[in-house]
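Lecture 7 notes: from sequence to structure.

We start with a single chain of 241 residues. Read the sequence below before looking at the structure.
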Amino acid sequence: MRSTLFNLAFWPVLAVFAILAWLIALTGWRRGLKAVMRAACRSVRGLMATLLGAPIEVRGTPPTGQPVIIAAKHQSWADGFLMMAIMGDINFVIGNEIGKFPLVGRIVRTAGATMVNSPGLTGAQGALQAAIDAAGDDPRPLLIYPEGRLPEVGESYRYRKGVHLMYETLGRTVIPVATNTGLRWPQNRWQKQSGPAVVEFLAPIPPGLPRDDFLPRLKLTIETRTRALEAEGQAHKEARS
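Now the structure, written as tokens:
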């Protein structure tokens, strides 16, 4: 029942914000656009807590306003909404396949997102390098999902070398982020589950590590903590049943 109520509210609310954001994007008013986007993301977080019964707990210290790279686990469509709701004004790396959704392409481009060709498409590597170069003067936190796609709960994909290219080129500290949001909002599925979810900011990885050290360390850090959060979330579900 909660899942249905959430879905019935989420899509109309998102549509209203998307239309408003698109209209503002037509004017090129980036500051106003980002304010609307943040309001939309905070509304989604609020709907998750009140209608779905899935409040979000933030652990660790979000690096708001710092020129760092946020490398986050990506299990759910909720993740992007929640990260902006938590962090406020951030830059983010996003695949150009997002443009297939009505209105979204213009919105994210006007907001200043770092858009790259989606993994596996011709020219993706060159597009990423160009995007990194463009992001070099942007002091906002830069969000990237290192796997480039959404795994199921309990699973992971290869961490792509693009996150190291970004880390190496920009010379920025990386903040790993673990989560168990996939327990409550599995990938992009209609059916969702009540219960608390966690977004956890982990210990920073300083700049300067070679790829063969950096990627295994990043993956081990995120995946180990994500498995622990998944177990915690499952235990909560079992305790209620």
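Residues 120-124 have pLDDT under 50 and may be disordered. Keep this in mind for problem set 3.
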